[in-house]
Amino acid sequence: MTPGARAAAAIGVLDRVLAGEAAEKALTNWGRASRFAGSGDRAAVRDLVYDALRQRRSAAALGGGEAGRGLVLGLMRANGQEALFSGEGHAPAPPAASEAGREPVGAEALDLPDWLVPELERSLGERLAPVAEALRARAPVFLRVNLARGTAAGAQAALAGEGIVTRPHPLADTALEVVEGARRVQVSDAYRAGLVELQDASSQAVVAGLPLAEGMRVLDHCAGGGGKTLAMAARAKLRLWAHDAAPRRMADLPERAKRAGVKVTLTERPEASAPYDLALVDAPCSGSGSWRRDPEGKWRLTPARLAELVGIQAAILDRVAPMVAPGGWLGYATCSLLRVENGDQAQAFLGRHPGWRLETERSFTPLEGGDGFHLALFRRS
Ligand SMILES: C[S@@+](CC[C@H](N)C(=O)[O-])C[C@H]1O[C@@H](n2cnc3c(N)ncnc32)[C@H](O)[C@@H]1O
To answer: What is its EC number (predicted)?
Structure first.
């Protein structure tokens, strides 16, 4: 496909996304209907679609339209590639006079929803603009070295032998940033043998911040696919339980645990195995720290949904706290940048639970390289 044809394909996919289809599904459907598209074409169309979703407001302003065509035209203008709209072959038609576009301003230029700016300002202060800018770009690909299977240097060497170049990342001793060959990771022998997992660097830093020790009874209460469950298991020999309100999200966890060489017990009733020495609540949240990876989330979030999430987080903390043994730990993590889900939530928990104290709190933003994350670590008296 020519670059122009790829732009036209991205416009079609974006129109379906704007009509309500999830980006992944729209891309899969396009891929199925486009047998002529090679792997390079698919990757390029995918990148265009996700870039347009990350920069949706500014691209719409620059491109003079909010539909797929306006977004891709705006992206191309921002990149000095407007000439791709040539009308030749399968390329999109040249811009009409009505598509002159304009410079984006304010929250539009930051590619943020207006309603969220005050809360982001309260949360990030002067870092608001640089963080918003970081959220407009693609996230790096990070790997977690599985220390139960070998060293970081060993994993790097194995990956390099398969054309995947990495460098250690300062956020965690287990974190490698992929600088070349990211698309080959999941088909590599190193990955298949469990030497590395795909995991964001801040997510790894959150787990590294937990006081895990040999023999501890640990509950991962919002385990999802088990990213943090496995990261915890690799740091110490634990007795580990994983729970999720949607158990099907943990469907792959037994297989992943096997590949990583660790044992995890899935439980629908975590109370039955209490008390735990440490419980991790990796709570459902706005996802605002990971909007580089899930840009649709940035436009989907509403004030009502955010308020609902804050209520869900508090209810989960209230359920889990009694399951922790006296002297034990409760880690509350979100991939959110918002104070209402982080520091405010931690203070509200302390207000409701006098037998607990806050030991540490750490915040990460994409400015450190990984996703935005927050960890509050409580200890029970
Ligand atoms: C941020 S995700 C977890 C990600 C996972 N820990 C990881 O590292 O890959 C939050 C998870 O919480 C689960 N969840 C939502 N409400 C819950 C609840 N009330 N109790 C337990 N889990 C819940 C969701 O199904 C989702 O899988």
So the answer is: 2.1.1.-
